[in-house]
Design a protein that fits this description.
With 442 residues, the chain is mainly α. Helix 10 packs antiparallel against helix 11 and helix 14 packs antiparallel against helix 15. The longest helix has 19 residues. The relative contact order is 0.04.
């Protein structure tokens, strides 16, 4: 049985979620036949199955499995046991993926109370629960509660782990992001200097972990305020992480490629990002593919479509026909067709994008809303105004209902509706939408 666990863990770590899930199903069938319905080993297998479903972006299914795990842990160990808290934290993550922030906070708070009672205030599990609570409160605009948990986490980390520890840095990063959200850039800058200083002391050690080096390089590329950024140092740190992983980790390669891009080295960046995407786990990267295509559009436009079509074939072979990541490649193909003036082909691929997303996501999901908006804009260009209107209004409503849609994307969605009515010769509706106030951010 443990062999199946190890194999499932190996497949999960290689982002081969379908195979991991299949191994877990085999294990569960054997366990339930020989161990009965309630056994600790069954709970362990269910956790692995939920992890595979989550890796495959099947969050509602993962949530259902983890609810079963929580119930089983309570029956096996009682409410006040770290294993019960671990199951609750896993459930909170899957709920959070579906933007159920209030429920995620409630579940995480229940886990935190257990960790405090059983493991103490400075245990890594306690600190993780504190950071997750703070993050959700910050996303909801409840800054006072977020600060309370960020500060508790930071003080515990500094006291028990010291300033130069990845957990301390994560606590500092959370507090810095809170300061940015509060419109306090000077305080955020001071925290950023402190973060860089801590990362540099870690990087000075010869045994620094590649994932920590990768985190540091990413920070140097994306830090706010932007004056903290240092792509040259990011490239140095990222190259060290790439070498430490034998060029077999797509995340470290991605970071190096982005650093090369920011240094004005597009040819090198394209080669590095293509290398990252050539790895099996590269097929599930949300950002690498977009960054590569953006570079190729400028520096090698003739290569864009052949690359995306080849990448699409790889995804279908490796991940199956229903995979959500396929929609991202179809979307990039549609955007490329629009840029090239091939609106008929762009429409076909935009429709395929929406169909692909609907295989695994509800209509209320923001990405489905964005797909409707982009297809509606193409139909506006093709003067199919009635069909465009329906999609654009649905897309706008989806983004407006999502409390995490910022004013930028929501404003762009509104502008698409305005352009529709202007081209349709309906100036009154165009004016009404132009004057429409955006939902205030929390």
């Amino acid at each position: 049985m443990r062999l199946r666990w190890w194999l499932a863990d190996a497949h999960n770590s290689r982002h081969d979620a379908p195979q991991a899930a299949a191994l877990c199903e085999e294990a569960l069938a054997i366990q339930r036949r020989h161990l009965g319905p309630l056994h600790p080993e069954i709970a362990e297998t269910l956790v692995r199955r939920a992890r595979a479903l989550g890796e495959d972006l099947k969050w509602p299914q993962a949530e259902q499995v983890l609810r079963e795990v929580v119930e089983m842990r309570v029956r096996l160990h009682g409410e006040n046991h770290p294993a019960t808290a671990d199951a609750l934290m896993s459930l909170a993550v899957q709920v959070d993926h579906q933007f159920k922030r209030e429920e995620s906070i409630a579940v995480t708070g229940r886990a935190l109370a257990i960790y405090r009672r059983t493991l103490g205030p400075a245990h890594p599990s306690t600190l993780r629960a504190l950071r997750n609570l703070a993050l959700n409160y910050r996303r909801m605009g409840r800054f006072g509660e977020a600060e309370r948990y960020y500060r508790e986490s930071l003080e515990a980390c500094v006291r028990t782990l010291g300033e130069q520890h990845p957990s301390t840095i994560q606590a500092l990063l959370g507090l810095q992001n809170l300061r940015l959200d509060q419109g306090r850039p000077e305080d955020a800058r001071d925290l950023g200097v402190r973060i860089i200083r801590a990362y540099e002391r870690i990087a000075a050690r010869g045994d620094a972990e590649p994932d920590v080096l990768d985190d540091y390089a990413n920070y140097l590329l994306t830090a706010q305020p932007s004056e903290l950024r240092n792509p040259q140092r990011a490239a140095e740190v990222a190259r060290r992480a790439v070498n430490a992983t034998g060029r077999r980790d797509h995340l470290t390669l991605r970071t190096l490629g982005l650093a090369q891009r920011d240094l004005g080295q597009p040819r090198e960046a394209v080669a590095t990002l293509r290398e990252a995407l050539s790895l099996p786990q590269g097929t599930r990267s949300w950002t690498t593919e977009e960054a590569l295509v953006a570079l190729m559009e400028t520096h090698a436009p003739a290569e864009v479509e052949p690359f995306l079509l080849g990448f699409l074939d790889r995804q279908r072979a490796l991940r199956g026909s229903d995979d959500q990541f396929i929609a991202k490649t179809l979307r990039l193909l549609a955007l490329h067709d629009r840029k090239a003036g091939r609106t008929e082909e762009a429409e076909k691929r935009a429709r395929a994008t929406l169909t692909q997303l609907r295989k695994t996501l509800p209509e209320s999901y923001w990405e489905v809303g964005r797909a409707k908006l982009e297809l509606g804009e193409i139909l506006t260009e093709r003067r199919a105004f009635a069909s465009a209107e329906s999609l654009l209004l649905q897309g706008y409503e989806t983004l407006e209902a999502d409390r995490e849609t910022g004013p930028g994307p929501l404003g762009q969605a509104r502008d698409r509706v305005v352009r529709l009515y202007e081209r349709w010769g309906r100036p009154g509706e165009a004016r009404a939408w132009r004057e429409r106030r955006l939902r205030p951010t929390p």
